[in-house]
């Protein structure tokens, strides 16, 4: 009896990833994603991105008083000029297969009448992180774009160069030739708590520099919980209104500091928006601007949270040939061939106890430790195997391109 996605707790949800308006005929009002990736083809059942605490965040000395009734307006005044509109266009398109059919060739020869297909266009948001023109946005906002136009709030437009994109975290880096630009102030998520204020700025439905406000609804939402298991992010959840076109815009705290990047909304609900934490943005953007790409550590295992129900299913599955006595923990259900995990000797049925000395209780915590590691640097993974504790050294490799 093979374990299904549902049996293993690997649920998927339909989402509008980012809220970029456009690609005409491709993502009419946002990019509707129904995750279809089979976990057997990926590394883990739950994937998250490490949110390494940044160095002391840059802050404006004149913080907005907490009892100021106009704190939202003042936060927006500090940041609004650094929020930009991003218009992307894709002029590359292929003739539909139907028009290559021999039936058409028989009547028209090489003069097959081709359909008039307009360029695919999309609109999203972004924000300036350096005065010399470094901008970050969502990767899906500029995906496949052959040209990118950045519009500032003062009306100036620039042709943007896509320096690099990271589909694993949905972050992209753009550079424009400009100086003296207004910039955002990066904050931190370390002191965030549900119930605190959240302010979103972007270009929803093409309405430039729109401001919405709400609260932080939850923290640390995993990619699987959000419904996009192919990403590696621990999302901030907010009820600040986020709509198509908000993708790539900043999520601010009550002081006007950036705490995240708005990236996704739930298609089947109201008041559920998600943002990539600022620590992730800073780390990924730094690598993109420096090298044009991001390398993610990869072990090559599939794992699930062990519950009494999962334990019973595993023990009854004769094909697995496993006998599990533990009723909780993180159990490895598959080790991919020719991966660091396989080379280090990790096995199906191992129950992960700790990674680099840090106790493990969930798959998310395992992935957090992996993402915080360095490629090629050994990780100490303690597992429980047939009731005995063993420690193995696993050296992560770069995440293969086919899994990005």
Q: How would you describe the overall organization of this protein?
A:
By secondary structure, the protein is an alpha+beta fold. The strands form three sheets. Strands 1, 2, 3, 4, 5, 6, 7, 8, 9, 10, 11, 12, 13 and 14 form a 14-stranded antiparallel sheet that branches. It has two domains: 265 residues, Thrombin, subunit H; 107 residues, PDZ domain (Pdz3 Domain), CATH 2.30.42.10.
Unreliable runs: 1-18, 21-62
Number of helices: 7
What proportion strand?
Answer: 25-35%
Largest sheet: 14 strands, antiparallel
- CATH hierarchy, class of the largest domain: Mainly Beta
Number of domains: 2
Number of E-state strands: 22
Using only CA atoms, what is the Rg?
23 Å
How does the SSE layout of this entry go?
Layout: E1 15-22, E2 29-33, H1 71-79, E3 83-90, H2 102-108, E4 120-130, E5 134-137, E6 147-151, E7 157-166, E8 171-175, E9 197-202, E10 210-221, H3 223-226, E11 235-238, E12 250-252, E13 258-266, E14 273-277, H4 278-291, E15 297-298, E16 301-306, H5 308-316, E17 329-335, H6 340-344, E18 351-355, E19 358-359, H7 363-371, E20 379-385, E21 388-394, E22 397-398
Antiparallel strand pairs: 1-2, 1-4, 1-13, 3-4, 3-6, 4-5, 5-8, 6-7, 7-8, 9-10, 9-12, 10-11, 11-14, 12-13, 13-14, 15-22, 16-17, 17-18, 18-19, 18-20, 20-21
């Amino acid at each position: 009896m093979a374990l299904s996605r549902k049996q293993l707790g690997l649920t998927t949800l339909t989402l509008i990833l980012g809220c970029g308006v456009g690609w005409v005929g491709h993502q009419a009002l946002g990019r509707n994603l129904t995750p279809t990736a089979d976990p057997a083809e990926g590394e883990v059942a739950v994937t998250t991105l490490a949110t390494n605490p940044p160095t002391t965040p840059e802050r404006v000395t004149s913080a907005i008083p907490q009892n100021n009734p106009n704190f939202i307006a003042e936060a927006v005044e500090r940041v609004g000029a650094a929020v930009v509109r991003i218009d992307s266009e894709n002029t590359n398109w292929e003739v539909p297969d139907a028009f290559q059919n021999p039936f058409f060739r028989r009547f028209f020869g090489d003069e097959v009448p081709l359909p008039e297909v307009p360029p695919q266009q999309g609109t999203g948001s972004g924000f300036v992180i350096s005065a010399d023109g470094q901008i970050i946005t969502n990767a899906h906002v500029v995906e496949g774009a052959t040209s990118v136009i950045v519009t500032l709030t003062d009306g100036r437009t620039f042709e943007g160069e896509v320096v690099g994109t990271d589909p694993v975290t949905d972050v992209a880096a753009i550079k424009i030739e400009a100086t003296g630009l207004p910039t955002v102030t990066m904050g931190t998520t370390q002191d965030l708590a549900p119930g605190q204020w959240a302010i979103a700025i972007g270009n929803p439905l093409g309405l430039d520099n729109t401001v919405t406000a709400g609260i932080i609804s939850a923290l640390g939402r995993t990619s699987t919980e959000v419904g996009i298991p192919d990403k590696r992010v621990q999302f901030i959840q907010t009820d600040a209104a986020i709509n198509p076109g908000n993708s790539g815009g900043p999520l601010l705290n009550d002081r006007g500091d950036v705490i995240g990047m708005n990236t996704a909304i739930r298609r089947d609900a109201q008041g559920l928006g998600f943002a990539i934490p600022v620590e992730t943005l800073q780390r990924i953007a730094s690598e993109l601007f420096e090298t044009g790409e991001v390398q993610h550590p990869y072990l090559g295992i599939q794992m699930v949270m062990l519950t009494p129900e999962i334990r019973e299913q595993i023990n009854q599955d004769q094909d697995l040939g496993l006998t599990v006595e533990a009723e909780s923990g993180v159990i490895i259900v598959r080790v991919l061939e020719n991966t660091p995990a396989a080379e280090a000797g990790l096995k199906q049925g191992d129950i992960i106890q700790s990674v680099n000395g840090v106790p493990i209780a969930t798959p998310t915590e395992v992935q957090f430790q992996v993402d915080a590691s360095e490629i090629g640097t050994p990780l100490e993974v303690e597992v429980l195997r047939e009731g005995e504790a063993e420690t193995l050294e696993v050296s992560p490799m770069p995440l293969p391109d086919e899994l990005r």
